[in-house]
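Ticket #4471: structure export looks truncated?
Reporter: QA, pipeline team
Priority: medium

Steps to reproduce: submit the single chain below to the structure queue and open the exported record.
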Amino acid sequence: MIIKTWRLSDFARNKIKKMSDLKQGVIIGFLGKTQDRFSEYQRPVTTEEKLEFVSKIDGFTGVEMVFPYENGTPEETKMWMAKYGLEFAAINVNIKKETEWVPGALSRPDKGIRDRAVAMIKKAKDFAKAVGAPHVTCCPLSDGYDVLFQINYKTAWNYMVETIAEAADYLPEVPIFIEPKYSETRVHCQIDSTAKGLLLLKDIQCKNTGITIDMGHSLQSQENPAQALSLIYESGYDAYIHTNDNDTKADWDLVGASRHFLHYIEMMFWAQEYGYDKYFTTDASPRIFDVLDFFNRHSEITQGAYKLAKTLNRGQIMEMMRTEDYNGLMKMVNKKIYRI
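Actual output as written to the record:
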């Protein structure tokens, strides 16, 4: 019998280093008017007003801006960012809003529709390079299906590989991160899990790619977010983290740890273990809550969870895992995390 010894992937080994300080940011689309099928929330504000608002949230310095709907020219956008002392966490390219992309963008049979979606991602990469953003993130929410016998699974998958590969190969110095989600806007999204996202990246065979792991999306897909993060790194790819929470039934974008406290702590623990040094970007929606208080509470719990994770005895925990001391691990959780 051959016993395979555990080892870190080369990518993961290069990532592990001294823990960096926590950096928090926000998708600024949540700082203005939002809506669902039933209601509208908050009031419309300009992009500059959103950036000014970010500067008022405790501990927030990062911005994820949706391209092409929130940005100005590169010069104008950089001026706004400098004015409020902010940094780019990422550029989020939206390929679902235009009418022709509502039923899907990257996996559609019509090559013209696919080409225009790829062109939008390329423009987002151009913009990211011009303003100094570290990467582009894309959540292809409209690609997928609502009913059975709706799409050709074979061609839809191959089109996803083809289109994202083309986008990834363009301006390779600006990596593209793909964000999986189980459902919404499609009943079943094409890239519905972390594993499916990694399979896509492996088919693409471009190292200038990664996975945006949204904690709520991961929970909705019945994943353990910390395990999913480890899978990304051990598969040889990079990760970018969105923070929030939900009830696993829908992507409610709640304040982090409001439903899954222990998952939140474990995610922070493994992010630190892998030397994660990007922004923890808030993908949470205030809806009926006071906007500033909502994000201050999210910042508060995220800072607290990160600090708590740093206090844990990593060597001891890893040794208990190695020796399968499950009762010892549960005691550690009770005493050091729940404090009971």
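Status: closed, not a bug. The export was complete when the record was re-opened. Leaving a note from the reviewer for reference: The chain has a mean pLDDT of 94.
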